[in-house]
Write a structure and sequence with these properties.
2 helices; 0% strand; single chain
């Protein structure tokens, strides 16, 4: 990844974090309260986040990196399990048992 792409990736990340932080801070805590942003502003924020995500994906694809779409906790157990090839055996059919 060249310096220009790296800088653009950093800008995209900061913009995404800022927009989501703003939305979190202005979202009312109580369910019945009206959101202070207009419907058009909410749509514009969604559009911006969509464009940022698309550009981040393009940058990742260009550099050969994978994009982790969903956040995860480092102490979260993995959803997949790696099995060494040496432990893979022939699948037994019901008639073989």
């Amino acid at each position: 990844m060249n310096q220009e792409s790296k800088k653009e990736q950093e800008i995209m990340m900061v913009m995404r974090k800022l927009l989501t932080t703003i939305v979190r801070e202005v979202t009312p805590e109580h369910k019945g309260l009206r959101h202070p942003l207009s419907d058009q502003t909410i749509q514009d924020i969604r559009s911006c986040l969509g464009l940022i995500t698309a550009r981040e994906k393009e940058l990742a694809d260009d550099s050969g990196r994978k994009v982790q779409e969903r956040p995860y906790f480092t102490d979260e157990p993995p959803k997949t399990k790696t099995v060494p090839i040496s432990r893979i055996g022939k699948v037994k059919r019901e008639s073989e048992e």
